[in-house]
Design brief:
54 residues, 3 strands
């Protein structure tokens, strides 16, 4: 199982949430950094867009 740590920064994004960086410890000893971006659905919800079935 790979260990993942979260680093919460003092910086905020466009909806005023703190920006986090995720650090995944790889089996070979390297670190993988990710900002784990929000999903497309999440972005649609926060931007007040609606999706209508046609």
């Amino acid at each position: 199982m790979k260990k993942i740590d979260e680093v919460v920064t003092p910086f905020v994004d466009d909806i005023n949430d703190q920006i986090s960086i995720y650090v995944k410890h790889q089996a070979n000893g390297q670190l993988r950094l990710s900002d784990d971006p929000p999903t497309g659905y999440y972005n649609i919800c926060i931007s007040n867009m609606t999706i209508n079935k046609t």
